[in-house]
Specification:
By secondary structure, this protein is of the alpha/beta class. The protein has a single domain (about 70-265), classed as Alpha-Beta Barrel (TIM Barrel), CATH 3.20.20.370. It has helices at about 25-45, 55-60, 65, 85-95, 105-110, 115-120, 140-160, 175-185, 205-215, 235-250, 260-265; strands at about 75-80, 100-105, 125-130, 165, 190, 195, 220-225, 255-260. Helix 8 (about 175-185) links the parallel strand 4 (about 165) and strand 5 (about 190). The radius of gyration is 27 Å and the shape is globular. The N and C termini lie far apart (about 90 Å).
């Protein structure tokens, strides 16, 4: 019987290499890369949704978020109220036109004028949430963003007697945490397809009308303001003056105007 063959030293398997230690230059570099990837992922998750603020990109890729809805219909929305000076004038103008709209209210403003918030709802308009304070949420931590939405929703609901179903962030800036908190609160984010740039000191009824009509109006969502809390003082007067001009042009085009609930079914 032959004896077992003995492997030549050159053919012997190489000893297994021990894993690199997690300390020292190699381990430190590995942890540094992991840390950078984690930070980069967190930054992307936080900031990437803000790209939805780019109008053409939003309308093409995220039509529902942009407010693209029923053809032949226009969703009319107002931000930043309720305001004791501006909102009553807006309500009167809408009543004359027979229009209903969606009012994206700030919690802080609703606390200052709870009776007016209730009046908006009693007039048949939709009550929506614009946040508690008019902050750029890209500069807020996830917990701060969540606190803003929860507090704003509670304040608007308490003042108006209606639970908001729609949410529009200040400046149209969305973040990953904001989207997560909005979903948990049952709020649907909606931005816009056309705006009147009615916050400017140089705005006039004619300029507001032209700016609105320069965007996507038919089947879209129009953004105006019923407060000057973040606008030039008295800028809302141009908004009031633009409403009958818009009614004439939209009526001539055969477009119906209403709140988001009728628009984004």
């Amino acid at each position: 019987m032959r004896g077992a063959a003995v492997a030549h030293p050159s053919q012997a398997p190489a000893p297994a290499r021990a894993p690199a230690p997690l300390s020292g230059p190699v381990g430190a570099g590995r942890w540094r890369r992991v840390g950078l990837l984690a930070v980069g992922g967190a930054v992307v998750w936080h900031a990437a949704p803000a790209l939805a603020g780019v109008g053409p990109l939003r309308r093409r890729l995220l039509p529902g978020l942009a407010g693209v809805g029923r053809p032949g219909h226009v969703a009319l929305t107002f931000d930043d109220g309720p305001d004791l000076a501006a909102t009553p004038a807006i309500l009167e103008a809408l009543a004359r036109l027979g229009w209903r709209a969606t009012f994206f209210m700030l919690g802080e403003m609703a606390c200052r004028a709870p009776g007016l918030a209730a009046e908006v709802a009693a007039a048949g308009h939709e009550v929506a949430l614009h946040g508690d304070a008019h902050h750029n949420l890209l500069r807020r931590t996830p917990s701060q963003a969540g606190d803003d939405l929860r507090r704003g929703r509670a304040r608007v609901a308490a003042a108006s007697g209606r639970e908001p179903a729609w949410y529009r962030p200040p400046y149209g800036v969305l973040t990953g945490p904001v989207l997560l908190h909005a979903a948990r609160l049952g709020l649907r984010p909606v931005l816009w397809t056309a705006w009147g740039r009615d916050w400017r000191a140089a705005a006039t009824p004619a300029s507001v009308t032209a700016d609105v009509l320069g965007g996507m109006v038919a089947g879209g969502t129009v953004l105006l303001h019923d407060s000057d809390c973040t606008s030039a003082p008295g800028a809302w007067r141009s908004t009031v003056g633009a409403l009958p001009l818009l009614a004439e042009r939209l009526g001539r085009a055969g477009l119906r105007v209403g709140p988001l609930g009728e628009h984004l079914r």
